[in-house]
Amino acid sequence: MDREKRELVIALAGNPNCGKTALFNRLTGARQRVGNFSGVTVSRKVGETHHKGWTFRFVDLPGIYSLSTLTMEERVAREYLASREPDLILNVVDAGNLERNLFLTVQLIESGRPRVYVLNMADEARNKGIEIDLEGLSQRLDGPAVFTTARTGAGVEALLDALAADAEAGFPRRGVTVHYDGHLEEAARRLMALAPSSTDAVDEKVHRWQAIQGLEGLTEESSGGLSEAWRESVRRERERLAKQHGEGAEFLLAAGRYGFIRGLLRETVRQGATKASLVTLTDRLDGALLHRVLGLPFFFLLMGLMFQATFTLGAYPTDAIDGLFQWLGQQVGAILPESPLRELLAEGILPGVGGVAVFLPNIMLLFLFISLFEDSGYMARTAFLTDRAMHAIGLHGRAFIPLLMGFGCNVPAIMATRSMEHPKDRLVTMLINPFMSCSARLPIFILFGGAFFPEQAGLVVFSLYLLGILVALGTALLLKKTLFRGLSEPFVMELPPYRWPTIRSVALHMWEKAVEFLKKMGGVILAGSVAIWFLQAYPREVTLDWNPEEKIAEATAHLPEGDERQAAIQEIEAAKAAAEQEQRFLGRLGRTIQPVFEPLGFDWKDSIALLTGFVAKEVVVSTLGVLHRAGKESDAESQSLRERLASSMSPVTAYAFMVFSLLYIPCLATIAVIRRETMGWRWPVFSVAYGLIIAWIAAWVAQAVGGWLT
Fold first, then answer.
1. Which member of 284, 299, 464, 693 has the greatest number of CB atoms within 10 A?
2. Are 93 and 117 in contact (CB under 8 A)?
3. What is the domain-level CATH number for residue 55?
4. Residue 73 lies in a domain
């Protein structure tokens, strides 16, 4: 705490679904920023509030149940709370579920850090008939306690007053000790005796906390520079306790903490008459939404409506953003003289950045629905519904939502894996997500399906979506059996009560995700767009073995002005562009790698198209349009391009091309987000290499089986 500047750093700690983040948003409003804890991808939000001459800097920690287990969120929260950075811990608890929430509270008491307690969701506690002696609870927990309802803002002002008063007084605390079984206490005293001697009461509490953590099995986190002899003593004490009681010290500690909690609640909480109508409403909704037969169909209906609304409503702002970047490109072309700089801006940077910016409306709409589902309490129930089915591939229910989102766009889908607690399950879900066919691949399927399978195009596209799902599931099984061997962490999904989402909370959630997406994608997309443009544009001077002007003169000599003449000119210009592209770096690269794709039946043009698809899969269609001399404006509906493709490859090769497009390298934005979420290049490189190998094998099998059948 900086008394001169009157600044205070306050860490918000609490269980998931206790309303902690909603309270943080109430306390800080728009004065917040989002970042990651050092070295990990767990998000931290920091915001400020000024009150009664004090500056309160709030840090919203991940929701955790305990400081004892080893999920990423709990480890990050434990390390942060043990650091010197926070001056005060704001412990947020669900007033209607005190027994479960207070387990973390007891551990915070043992850590010895000053605390202020927020009994949130006070309205729901009253509706359950729960009466709490706030003053008695405050005395027994050794810190001020305040009732709040973050959803409406009730009690927030009183909380700020309590924080200011506590800061002015210098956090006066008596100190509370949680007493354990006699054998545990003796073991703790023996370990404390091995710590550096001190008469300081604060050091005494620190040493007791280190001893308790050591007995709980958290030796690395609790050692804090203590000797190897201390660690060996911890091992012996744990073995002695296990022999004395027939169970581990961690179970004895948990029993002691719950004993403290039960005694505390007996003194301060009274269960009065319950308002049965609200309980019945929750029970009735769960009876329908978690129904054994109807639960999943209803869920899929909601997901279908969500994606339909996302891409239908998102089309309007997407078209506007696309039009804006096209207009910017035209303005750059009109203002700047012809030069490499103009080409870089108009043909490289603006199309590249614009190609990612058009995803923003879809992403915001997706997170709008996700926020509504999460805040209402329904998202937890969807994971519960799909949990049993997901166990078949070694994952649990929370992995299902990101996979489903992958059919829209892999970028927000991978970002959505943050809802998964356990790093291994989260990483597996990220690595298999690119096999879920995103909407960007659809133009390729439409083009080839219409050109080669006009009567069965729908069935062909469906087979590709199904293939992507099967490859994703098979990959999950493979990863779980090899790189990530072992059972998943136990999945215990809390079913929070149903609540009405607030406009404020939903709006802040959408805004945070939009800013995060643009920040994380912008730099990588910009660099990638410049690199692709350079490969397509250089070397500048290329030599053709024919003269385009002469070809145009010959082709149009006997044609009058009109559409036919213009079409002939466009045909030759497209041929010129394709010939020039073949001699530039990207074309040479296509020629170089073409032998790799030759067994699949792909020529150098197909190879180049697949290379440019690394930036965005939609680019594959426009690249094929240029290389096959169908004009620069070719799209999935271009009849000219369909005809030229149909004459350049067989239906079997076309299907193999679609299979390869489905499974190979994710787009640049997806690679960027995997890199960002995993904090390094190891797993993005693995995703690229594995996808290429699987795509090549699958396309070769499609070519071989198709050839055999035909």
1. 464
2. yes
3. 3.40.50.300
4. yes
C-alpha 87 chain-centroid distance: 30
Q: Work out whether strand 130-132 and strand 269-271 pair parallel, antiparallel, or are unpaired.
A: antiparallel
Same domain, 108 and 241: no
Measured between alpha carbons, how far is residue 668 from residues 318, 356, 513, 673 in Å?
Answer: 19, 10, 19, 9
CB 699 within 8 A of CB 656: yes
Task: Report in angstroms the alpha-carbon separations of 615 from 351, 355, 532.
Answer: 11, 9, 8
Please give the pLDDT value at position 352: 63
- Work out whether the CA dihedral 608, 613, 617, 622 comes out positive or negative: negative
> Is the pLDDT score of 424 beyond 50?
yes
Look-up: residue for tokens 């009849």?
Answer: 639
At 8, is the secondary structure helix, strand, or coil?
strand
Helical (H) or strand (E) element with 132: strand 130-132
Asked if residue 554 is part of any domain, the answer here is no
- Single out the residue of 493, 396, 422 nearest to residue 70, CA to CA: 422
CB 88 within 8 A of CB 8: yes
191 shares a domain with 160: no
Instruction: Give the pLDDT confidence score for residue 8 in this predicted structure.
Output: 93
- Domain edge (last residue) among 231, 260, 289: 260
Q: What is the CATH number of the domain that holds 241?
A: 1.10.287
In the Cβ-directed half-sphere of 250, how many Cα atoms lie within 13 Å? Answer: 11
Instruction: Find the domain containing 255 and state its range.
Output: 182-260
SS (H, E, C) 292-361: CCCHHHHHHHHHHHHHHHHHHHCHHHHHHHHHHHHHHHHHHHHHCCCCHHHHHHHHHHHHHHHHHHCCHH
The predicted pLDDT at position 57 comes to: 93
Tell me the CA distances in angstroms from 263 to 72, 95, 140, one per residue in order.
32, 17, 10
Which range (245-254, 314-323, 510-519, 606-615) has the least confidence? 510-519
Residues 51 and 153 in one domain: yes
Cβ neighbours for 125, distance < 8 A, ≥ 6 positions apart: 94, 95, 96, 119, 132
> Containing H/E element for 268?
helix 249-268
Select the more confidently predicted residue: 348 or 680.
Answer: 680
Supply the pTM of this predicted model. 0.59
More confident site: 148 or 306: 148
